[in-house]
Amino acid sequence: MGLPFEPDTAVAHLIAEKVLAGRGEYIVTTAELHAVVCRRLPSSSATKNPAATAWHVRHLAADLGTLGISARTRRTRSDSRPWFFRLV
Description:
Elements: H1 9-21, E1 25-28, H2 30-40, H3 50-59, H4 61-66, E2 69-73, E3 83-87
Antiparallel strand pairs: 1-3, 2-3
């Protein structure tokens, strides 16, 4: 069984731009990342909702790794789950 749709590699490139602009680091919540994707990539399937944005990030982990970026998420004290993108 394949994926419901292909992950949009433009999302990985957008994250890479943000990491480089942030001097090697970009920390963002799923909702914030979704808003950025909606503004910058309005025709992407990642704009459907925040869950779709998170799905794309999870399925683009290998692409981000190829670009030298690690992608992680973890629960914080405030019970949110920000994404941590860093140059490796």
